[in-house]
């Protein structure tokens, strides 16, 4: 399998021990991508890689490492840590991520007795904070509305949802759209530059309200977007 006629990139997932990162690791490793789980604790990373491996059909490449080694050895780095850990994690991998695509899945969210809401972020959004902290990387925001539960469900052959892909570097957003397409059921759709990421991140609070009301794992679907249109965007 190839990515737009290029070799498949290796993926390093910081926070791959967690729900969303672990789900992406499972889906991409099953699709044939070399994946490394990155953690603050190498033992935890190794345990997560072993656990995820048991659910993957067929040959695959799934390794584990500390955060810096994970970012340094990957072609594409994914940031899948809680908002509280976003700034600290990015600061650590600034050199290791130089020149690379960094996919940021982080939703800055806060909770009170009325439910989830999007707090204000000084840089505008998590994605803009990432780009400010990693000026020599190509930050792409994606996967904000994908359910970790469905991603990790080995019995679900597809994860039927659209993924809004945002970034300031067009080639990087196209690469991430291709990475989205490798997960059966998903479409990656270009949805703007990083300065518009706050709305996309904040929409997750609305999805959480949907999930609570209807006891489900809702995703998003964009209508009237042709495959060809987003492939050439
Ligand atoms: N869960 C979802 O359905 C979903 C969907 C879309 C987007 N997201 C976004 O994806 C990100 C990860 O979500 P998640 O649900 O996968 O989170 P999670 O399971 O709570 O945490 C992911 C990993 O982050 C690492 N981490 C680093 N610093 C941390 C800290 N200070 N406190 C706690 N953990 C820390 C931990 O790995 P180590 O301890 O091994 O380092 C942990 O396993 C969030 O920003 C979220 O907004 C989540």
Summarize the structure.
The chain is built from 9 helices and 10 strands.
Describe this structure in words.
This protein is an alpha/beta fold. The protein has a single domain (11-231), classed as Rossmann fold. Helix content is 36%, strand content 19%. The protein is built from 9 helices and 10 strands. It has helices at 19-30, 42-53, 67-73, 86-92, 126-133, 148-151, 170-181, 197-214, 227-231; strands at residues 11-14, 35-39, 62-66, 76-79, 101-104, 110-112, 115-117, 138-141, 161-167, 186-190. It has an 8-stranded mixed beta sheet, with helices on both faces. It has a two-stranded antiparallel sheet with strand order 6-7. It is globular. Residues 15, 17-21, 39-41, 44, 80-85, 89, 105-107, 143-144, 146-148 line the site of NADP nicotinamide-adenine-dinucleotide phosphate.
What key attributes describe this structure?
233 residues; alpha/beta; Rossmann fold; 8-stranded mixed beta sheet; two-stranded antiparallel sheet; 9 helices; 36% helix; globular; binds NADP nicotinamide-adenine-dinucleotide phosphate
Please specify the SSE layout and strand pairing.
Blueprint: E1 11-14, H1 19-30, E2 35-39, H2 42-53, E3 62-66, H3 67-73, E4 76-79, H4 86-92, E5 101-104, E6 110-112, E7 115-117, H5 126-133, E8 138-141, H6 148-151, E9 161-167, H7 170-181, E10 186-190, H8 197-214, H9 227-231
Parallel strand pairs: 1-2, 1-4, 2-3, 4-5, 5-8, 9-10
Antiparallel strand pairs: 6-7, 8-9
The structure holds NADP nicotinamide-adenine-dinucleotide phosphate.
């Amino acid at each position: 399998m190839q990515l737009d006629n290029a070799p498949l990139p290796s993926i390093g997932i910081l926070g791959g021990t967690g729900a969303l990162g672990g789900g992406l690791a499972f889906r991409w490793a099953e699709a044939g991508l070399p994946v490394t789980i990155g953690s603050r604790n190498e033992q935890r990373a190794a345990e997560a890689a072993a656990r995820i491996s048991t659910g993957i059909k067929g040959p695959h490449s799934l390794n584990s490492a500390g955060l810096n080694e994970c970012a340094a050895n990957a072609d594409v780095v994914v940031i899948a840590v809680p908002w509280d850990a976003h700034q600290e994690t990015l600061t650590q991998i600034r050199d290791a991520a130089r020149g690379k695509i960094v996919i940021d899945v982080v939703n800055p969210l806060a909770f009170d007795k009325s439910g989830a809401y999007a707090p204000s972020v000084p840089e505008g959004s998590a994605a803009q904070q990432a780009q400010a902290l990693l000026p020599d990387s190509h930050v792409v925001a994606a996967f904000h509305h994908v359910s970790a539960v469905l991603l990790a469900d080995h019995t679900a052959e597809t994860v039927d949802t659209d993924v809004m892909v945002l970034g300031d570097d067009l080639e990087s957003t196209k690469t991430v759209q291709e990475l989205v397409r490798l997960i059966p059921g998903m479409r990656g759709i270009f949805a703007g530059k990083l300065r518009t990421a706050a709305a996309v991140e904040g929409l997750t609070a609305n999805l959480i309200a949907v999930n609570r009301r209807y006891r489900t794992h809702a995703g998003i679907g964009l209508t009237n977007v042709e495959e060809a249109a987003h492939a050439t965007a």
